[in-house]
Amino acid sequence: PMLNSSFIEETNEVILKGSHNIGIAMATAHGLVVPNIKKVQSLSILEITKELA
To answer: Hey, CA dihedral for 26, 29, 33, 37, is it positive or negative?
Structure first.
């Protein structure tokens, strides 16, 4: 599937974005927090977990 893309209906065009960012909802004692991890396509699973710590 095409990830992180946009579809322009008028021109029937698909625009692919250069990078992927993700947010993961986490419940904390202070409420809901959603950290945003940028350029996740270039990170390993271990690097992503370090970003969330």
So the answer is: negative
